[in-house]
Amino acid sequence: MLAKRTLENTLVALAIVALGLNAMFKFAAWSAIARTQDSKKDNDRTLNIEPRKEVALQFDSWTRYQLDSAQQWAPLFPEGGVIHLGPTRAPYAVSMMHQLRCLDVIRDQLTRPRSERDAEPTRHCLNYVRQMATCRGDLQFDPIQYPHKVNALHPHAVRRCKDWRAVYDAAWKNQQQHRDWLKEHWSNASNGGGESSGLVWSLP
């Protein structure tokens, strides 16, 4: 009789454990699905600055942005072109600024002796710019000239573009909000007002 009761208790305990494990697995699966959906949403995110007006850009062989002018290239991607989104302030790179930063990486590598070059970031940037050019699929015509011709067809062609200044304004606003957020959380952590979650805050 005692052995039978012990067996029943054991089976009940095993059933409870099985139910608990089943609940844990379901919760883990649900969390994984939710993270995947959030990731897809993140990948579809864009800066909320629509509608963006169109502006004219005159093409020219500018003397600015030379191969060795790092200080002139840096303002094209302020703070690395990184913005922070969501309650966790997850970092993202604005694609336009990411592309400009990649051009700067390639520029920088070209100015270095071959023995000092780092192939990995250059390879990444070459492929990133290639993929973005393909992704955008710009259908506007560019005037070209054959090598044996002397004068360009249109030396100062004008192109219709989306206003890039709106991108910089939106990125600057987000970066300013992130700086304020960092200062607030740094102050709370320093004053014992909240846990720092093990993070070391670095104010730009």
TrEMBL record:
GO MF term set: oxidoreductase activity
Pfam families: UstYa
Stored InterPro entries: UstYa-like
GO biological process: mycotoxin biosynthetic process
Keywords, in A-Z order: Oxidoreductase
Pathway the protein contributes to: Mycotoxin biosynthesis
Residues annotated as transmembrane: none
UniProt family annotation: Belongs to the ustYa family.
Protein name, entry field: Zn(2)-C6 fungal-type domain-containing protein
Source organism of the structure: Ganoderma boninense
Gene from which this protein is expressed: I1RIY9
